[in-house]
Amino acid sequence: MTQQSTDSKDVVRAFWTEVWNEGRLDRIADFMTEDFVIHSGGRDIGPRQAFADWVRDFHGAIDDLVFDIRALHSDGPAVTTLWRITGRNAGFMGTPANGKPVRFTGLTLSIVTPDGRIAEKWVERSAWELYPTLT
């Protein structure tokens, strides 16, 4: 494991940068606890390996994905991130891969353990508003 900060805000910022923007899926094990779970779109995705597969599929559905942090706030182990994703449709949300622009926003609450790993995430995103623009 690569040495990383245990400050919750630093951990979450590094996770967004390395895993989402740089596509470093190999770093997921460094950032997440083994029993990590994400609650997104009415589903619970976990543990860590299932999450890694989900991230891989997500990246595969949006070409040129950019994850832009709009705001980051922490309160102890809880970190809230307001974000925007942009890219091109490569089959996102089961739509045809037509290269249309993808742009949506979301809010994530991440819970960071004292040793600097993310144990849980809760995600809300504007997927319903995005869907009609992809077809």
Summarize the structure.
The chain has 135 residues and is α+β, with helices and mostly antiparallel strands. Helix content is 30%, strand content 43%.
List keywords for this structure.
135 residues, 43% strand, alpha+beta, 6-stranded mixed beta sheet, single chain, 4 helices
What does this protein structure show overall?
- About 30% of the residues lie in helices and about 45% in strands.
- By secondary structure, the protein is α+β, with helices and mostly antiparallel strands.
- It has a six-stranded mixed β-sheet.
- The longest helix is centred in the N-terminal third of the chain and has 14 residues, at about 10-20.
CA-to-CA gap between the ends?
A: 42 Å
Poorly predicted runs are none
Shape: globular
Radius of gyration, taken over Cα atoms and rounded to an integer in Å: 14 Å
Helices and strands in order:
Layout: H1 8-21, H2 28-31, E1 32-40, E2 43-45, H3 48-61, E3 62-75, E4 78-89, E5 101-112, E6 118-125, H4 127-134
Parallel strand pairs: 1-6
Antiparallel strand pairs: 1-2, 3-4, 4-5, 5-6
